[in-house]
């Protein structure tokens, strides 16, 4: 009698374990197929000049430019699950040289939503001063610029399987010095998925 109930207990345990493993396997399979996350799509919608001042450093004979740009970014989460993003930033380049940077505050986007993020990028004038092309570009009336927005995120599928996703958007535009507006803005977006 005693050994019989022990045997039934063991069978019960084995069956339960098998069931749990089967359910876990199905969930993992679903996570990597049906619910497989998509990286978010990051786009730069607007670039505006917020503030700009031009000066001349008579001692070093170099141009002194202070510019701050308002950059409007939108991030689309294509997943059914929420997306948490962290450690993301936007950078500003002038002829390949990093001249400005701004962090993107950590945040969350719920499933299938688009979130707008406004950033301010300020040109670090001291970095520009060492670039010999600046004077020429300013004299010609426009400065070619590039902004790179990089977003790193994590999608938790069914609460326990984490996928790391990343997306970047790189935009080329020019700053018209005389009327302080942005001319042209062509962007390329890229996405990445890694688990
Ligand atoms: C740019 O900003 C720096 C530091 O804030 C300041 O020293 C400089 O005078 C500014 N230049 C112009 C042209 O406003
Ligand atoms: C952000 O980056 C820092 C340094 O690279 C790292 O220590 C930290 O863990 C990162 N945070 C997240 C949430 O990944
Ligand atoms: C970003 O700026 C635009 C225009 O200034 C404004 O309409 C929008 O609500 C802002 N978005 C956020 C998320 O602050
Ligand atoms: C900048 O704007 C001024 C005034 O609208 C215009 O005359 C000039 O052609 C523009 N420069 C460029 C490079 O587009
Ligand atoms: C500035 O110049 C550009 C290029 O010539 C033009 O398209 C734009 O309308 C001008 N903006 C203003 C506010 O004058």
What features would you describe in this structure?
This is Late embryogenesis abundant protein LEA-2 subgroup domain-containing protein. Keywords: Membrane, Transmembrane, Transmembrane helix. The chain crosses the membrane at residues 12-35. Residues 73-170 form the Late embryogenesis abundant protein LEA-2 subgroup domain. The protein has 195 residues and is an alpha+beta fold. It has two domains: 1-34; 41-194, Sandwich (Immunoglobulin-like). It has helices at residues 2-32, 125-129, 133-140, and strands at residues 41-57, 62-76, 83-94, 97-104, 107-109, 114-122, 142-157, 161-176, 181-194. Strand 8 (161-176) and strand 9 form a beta hairpin. The model has no long low-confidence stretch (mean pLDDT 86). The structure holds 2-acetamido-2-deoxy-beta-D-glucopyranose (5 copies). One 2-acetamido-2-deoxy-beta-D-glucopyranose is lined by residues 53-55, 64, 66, 125.
Secondary structure topology:
Layout: H1 2-32, E1 41-57, E2 62-76, E3 83-94, E4 97-104, E5 107-109, E6 114-122, H2 125-129, H3 133-140, E7 142-157, E8 161-176, E9 181-194
Antiparallel strand pairs: 1-2, 2-6, 3-4, 3-5, 3-7, 7-8, 8-9
């Amino acid at each position: 009698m005693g050994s019989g109930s022990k045997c039934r207990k063991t069978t019960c345990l084995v069956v339960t374990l098998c069931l749990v493993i089967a359910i876990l396997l199905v969930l993992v399979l679903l996570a990597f197929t049906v619910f497989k996350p998509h990286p978010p799509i990051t786009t730069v919608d607007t670039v505006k000049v917020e503030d700009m001042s031009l000066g001349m450093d008579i001692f070093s004979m170099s141009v002194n430019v202070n510019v701050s740009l308002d950059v409007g970014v939108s991030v689309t989460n294509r997943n059914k699950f929420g997306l948490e993003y962290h450690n993301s930033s936007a950078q500003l380049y002038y002829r390949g040289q990093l001249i400005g940077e701004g962090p993107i505050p950590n945040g969350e986007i719920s499933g299938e939503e688009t979130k707008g993020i406004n950033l301010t990028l300020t040109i670090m004038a001291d970095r520009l001063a060492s670039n010999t092309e600046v004077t020429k570009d300013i004299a010609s009336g426009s400065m070619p610029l590039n902004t790179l927005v990089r977003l790193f995120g994590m999608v938790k599928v069914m609460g326990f399987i984490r996928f790391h996703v990343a997306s970047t958007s790189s935009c080329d535009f020019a700053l018209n010095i005389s009327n302080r507006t942005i001319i042209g803005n062509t962007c390329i977006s890229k996405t990445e998925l890694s688990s």
